[in-house]
Amino acid sequence: MSRLSEATAATAVAGPSGQQTDRLAEPFRAAMRRIASTVTLVTAADADGKPHGMAASAVISVSMAPPSMLVAVNRDAGIHPVLLASRSFCLNVLGRDQLDLLAPFSSTALRERRFESGEWRRGFAGLPYLASAPAAIFCELDHVVEYGTHTLCIGQVRDLAFGASPEPLIWLDGAAR
User: Which of 7, 94, 125, 135 is most buried by its number of CB atoms within 10 A?
Assistant: First the structure.
């Protein structure tokens, strides 16, 4: 098994954070590619009601009481200021049969095509949601934590919607499955 040696790991912790980040970036990325996660489309609406969205795999449930979810959003993502201003977001779990929706939500160049396909409706707080998604989880932003390049957005669940397909689309080793 390939791994960082204990001495190297100790150096990484003790060394300057810039060097540690540079040295660990690629091995960390490789390790994260081995963690399977459900592909989710995060959506929000700006003050004019225009929909915004991005693909995310860094999404987890936080608590059952209160029901809450966390999504990590890169501060450079176009949805970032919209989500913070609107104080609400929807997590649309993609189904295995919805792979075609992933590309527009993953590429800035395809941003204008994000809501052209799929059965989009409006739900809690005017949030766009995919009616055919296995699950759509509507959240009201409750807590924000800035960390590294991302903002951790914790939202309390306010509503739910369910589509027909119970099989989620999974992200593993840099590809959807």
Answer: 94
